[in-house]
Design a protein that fits this description.
Helix content of chain A: over 70%
Number of strands of chain B: 2
Oligomer: heterodimer
Largest sheet of chain B: 2 strands, antiparallel
Number of helices of chain B: 22
Strand content of chain A: under 5%
Number of domains of chain A: 2
Structural class of chain B: mainly alpha
Largest sheet of chain A: none
Number of strands of chain A: 0
């Protein structure tokens, strides 16, 4: 094929289909005046020619690709590995040199020991009312970032829902095949009525949940807060589910609970912080009492925000577990 | 403080609240919430743009009761607000135009896809307006997850595989970006952009930490380059743009990749600073990769037999233009890059939406041989596709022409080897663009293949309106090229 033919073919995108049709039309018109025998002979001839052509083409194809299939492939693989190692070497060289030339860890005259951390430590308690500096930092000074982080969890849960959630939980809806299969898999692979596990869970789960809630509530007073407390509560729920199965866990926590708790927590966070952001930016007194540092009801918005974050983390953890296990919560 | 300066805060919070709310709504309501939300955000930001344009200023906005290095802070300027208007308009038109396909392809989980769309808008707004590197990173995370969910919104094997590939590549990009932020914090002790800039400038002059500063630029560049599909890192792009639902493709190509590029521009200009950046060889690398991308994207587009994949590969080429403009290392180059970004965002979303309309009237086929005559079967989509394609090629009056003009102008200002390379590359890649885009337009207006059975598909009123909206907006951007570029120029001047 010449270049111009190639170009025409590409431009019209006919992928040979048109020409084939045309060919068959002209071929049939040529044969109009022939006797059936002559036609059959012609057809036979044509078939043989075609067959020979195909064989020839296949041979050519093989010859052309022999090198690429064997030695070429090996060469490419070696080249690829060599280049990969070369790139890795260059990148590691740069990163290691960077790390070596960074300021020594923890030295007093490092540039990150500056007015930023100084104010967090010195002014943290009077300005935020939180004895735990970290809580003051993430939920008051930089609360917008933390709202973003909670939304990351929410988005992650929603993405997993899109990917793994099987069917909707309408009452009159028939379970789909995928749901039945998931149910069967769950019965088959997960332990049922394990006495030791159930007894341990009976003792442990209330304690774990209570402890998680304690960590959340004391986030502004001691190390902990929404993220760690929420993770503990989520672990407690997962343990309960493992011991008693979906039917019993469903009495405590369903998909509806998940939706409402996440929604309300994020909305509360957004509402409270919007008020605080808006008043702060427009230099209006917010009128939120800070209370006495150290008391349980102190530090302004940090306590309710911690509770919101804790619920979000708990729901996300539980949702991840159930969705990956069975694609649903009941 | 004038009340209009609350607009960035309102648009971010509105998007996030609507996103969270959409999880509780039914899909039927949620999709309209998304459209209304984008319209409202566009209007709000237009108000802000006009105000900033009249008063010629930028401002900072405290997110809370504490000033900047301690609390979070937003910063509004002309570039940010102009881009916010453009992107929210695109979101509105894309969702409206792709709504019927969303209904068909997503089904029951539509409300969750709307959550993702709303949060894309929120993340985009925050990445535009943030003045803090870490806030930027938090919203990069949100953007990554939402993008993944959008790719797999239509669940078949291909989208799942491409979502997985996107996830791996994109997380690598996030990781490199986080590494860059960590090193920056280690060296300067700040996360606020102005403070980092001042400290880095001092360090640069004293010659301390020369290696970490180069590494920072390189890591930001590669990290965000992977996420915005710069040429050698583009392998996730064709499949994920080519097979997801049209609205998602439009949003991915026009908003998500652009938000990362803008964040990179902001980091280069506001965090590292033009003086440090232009002396770094990372910019040369950026330039070269941009030029290679311009060529390779177009060549791959010429070779593809599928309309959507062709449009997707053309994105690689256009991203190459943007990076080549940035790689010039001068302010005019950044202005040209941002203008090109706006042009490409409008044109590409129009192409994706109209392409879906065109393949619908051709029996849902994306092969060119079936698409013959689609321009007659669906006149609006044909016109929309033609206008957007002409804009990308660079036909005068449309924005693509002006974008190329600004790029070559910036190349002339830069001089040296970059000038010649960029000018020649522009000429060649314009020819390549003509080859594949005009071929498609010709195909659309050729008589249909013999034996083609018209499926008799009627397009919806809403999609038609959205496509006309795209036509109007594309022409408007071309006509208003000068004021837009002026806004970008004065906005960038306010960056330091």
């Amino acid at each position: 094929m010449t270049i111009s033919e190639h170009f025409r073919r590409w431009l019209y995108e006919d992928d040979g289909l048109d020409r084939e049709i045309e060919h068959s039309i002209t071929a049939s018109s040529e044969h109009d005046g022939l006797t059936p025998e002559a036609f059959a002979r012609l057809e036979n001839e044509y078939d043989e020619k075609h067959h020979a052509l195909v064989l020839e083409e296949e041979k050519q194809h093989e010859r052309m690709h022999e090198w690429a299939e064997t030695r070429g492939k090996r060469l490419l693989r070696t080249l690829y590995r060599l280049l990969a190692f070369l790139m890795l070497g260059i990148i590691s060289y740069f990163l290691i040199t960077t790390v070596i030339s960074l300021p020594p860890f923890g030295a007093a005259d490092n540039l990150y020991n500056n007015e930023v951390s100084q104010r967090y430590i010195e002014q943290g308690i009077p300005e935020t009312g939180a004895v735990n500096f970290v809580a003051g930092m993430i939920l008051d000074y930089r609360a917008f970032d933390t709202f973003g982080e909670s939304t990351v969890l929410f988005v992650a849960a929603c993405s997993v829902l899109i990917l793994l959630k099987l069917g909707d939980h309408g009452k009159d809806e028939k379970p789909t095949k995928a749901m039945l299969e998931a149910e069967w898999d769950d019965r088959h692979y997960e332990p049922k009525n394990d006495g030791i596990l159930q007894l341990a869970a009976k003792v442990l789960v209330p304690v774990i949940l209570l402890y998680g809630f304690y960590v959340v509530l004391n986030g502004h007073l001691s190390p902990g807060g929404g993220f760690s407390g929420g993770a503990i509560m989520g672990a407690g729920l997962i343990l309960y589910l493992n011991a008693f199965g979906f039917a019993k866990a469903g009495r405590l926590f369903t998909f509806k609970t998940f939706r409402w708790v996440t929604f309300l927590s994020l909305m509360t966070y957004a509402g409270l912080k919007s008020y605080s952001f808006f008043t702060g930016a427009n230099h209006i007194e917010s009128g939120i009492p800070l209370g006495t540092p150290g008391a349980i009801l102190s530090s302004g918005l940090i306590l309710p925000l911690n509770i919101c974050v804790g619920f979000i983390v708990m729901c996300t953890m539980y949702a991840f577990y159930t969705l990956f296990r069975k694609g649903g919560m009941s | 403080m004038p009340f209009v300066q609350n607009v960035p805060f309102f648009s971010i919070m509105l998007c996030m609240v609507c996103g969270v709310m959409s999880a509780m709504l039914s899909g039927r309501v949620a999709k309209w919430v998304t459209v209304a939300l984008s319209a409202a955000v566009a209007a709000l930001n237009l108000w802000l743009t006009l105000d900033l344009w009249a008063n010629h200023r930028s401002f900072v906005y405290w997110m809370g009761h504490f000033p900047a290095p301690w609390g979070n802070e937003l910063r509004g300027g002309l570039v940010e607000s102009t881009l916010a208007v453009c992107f929210s308009l695109i979101m509105m038109l894309s969702v409206a135009g792709g709504m019927r396909k969303l209904d068909q392809q997503v089904g029951k989980k539509l409300n969750l896809i709307c959550v993702m769309l709303d949060l894309v808008l929120a993340a985009m707004m925050s990445m535009l307006y943030t003045n803090d590197l870490f806030t930027g990173y938090v919203f990069i995370e949100i953007m990554t997850l939402t993008a993944c969910a959008l790719i797999m919104s239509r669940q078949n094997g291909r989208t799942l595989v491409s979502a997985m590939r996107y996830m791996i590549m994109s997380l690598l990009g996030s990781g490199l970006t986080l590494l860059a932020i960590t090193i920056t914090y280690n060296v300067t002790g700040h996360l606020l952009m102005e403070n980092i800039h001042d400290t880095l400038y001092e360090l640069h002059r004293s010659g301390n930490y020369a290696v970490p500063i180069t590494t920072i630029i390189g890591l930001f560049f590669v990290g965000l380059g992977i996420k915005s599909a710069l040429y050698p890192f583009h392998t996730w792009l064709p499949d994920s743009y080519g097979y997801s639902t049209p609205a998602a493709s439009a949003v991915l190509s026009s908003i998500i990749s652009k938000a990362y590029i803008f964040l990179l521009i902001k980091i280069l200009l506001r965090v590292v600073g033009l003086t440090v950046v232009s002396g770094s060889h990372a910019m040369d690398l950026m330039f070269v990769l941009g030029i290679v991308g311009m060529m390779m994207g177009s060549i791959n587009a010429i070779g593809s037999h599928d309309l959507r994949r062709m449009v997707a590969f053309s994105s690689v080429a256009q991203i190459g233009y943007i990076y080549a403009g940035m790689g010039l290392g001068i302010r005019a180059g950044f202005v040209a890059a941002i203008f090109h970004m706006i042009m490409h965002a409008f044109a590409k979303s129009a192409l994706f939406i109209s392409a879906s309309g065109l393949s619908e009237v051709s029996g849902n086929s994306k092969r060119f041989s079936d698409l013959r005559g689609a321009g007659f079967r669906h006149p609006t989509a044909g016109v929309c596709f033609t206008v957007a394609a002409m804009s990308l090629v660079g036909v005068p009056v449309l924005a693509g022409f002006t974008a190329k003009l600004y790029l070559s102008d910036a190349a002339l200002t830069a001089g040296g080897w970059k000038m010649w390379t960029l000018l020649i590359a522009l000429a060649v890649s314009t020819l390549l663009n003509v080859l594949y885009l005009m071929k498609t337009v010709i195909t659309l207006y050729r008589p249909a293949r013999e034996g083609f059975v018209d499926p008799g598909y009627k397009s919806g009123k809403l999609a038609t309106c959205a496509m006309w909206g795209f036509v109007i907006v594309n022409i408007l951007v071309g006509l208003m090229a000068h004021p837009i570029a002026e806004a970008i120029r004065s906005g960038l001047a306010m960056f330091d």
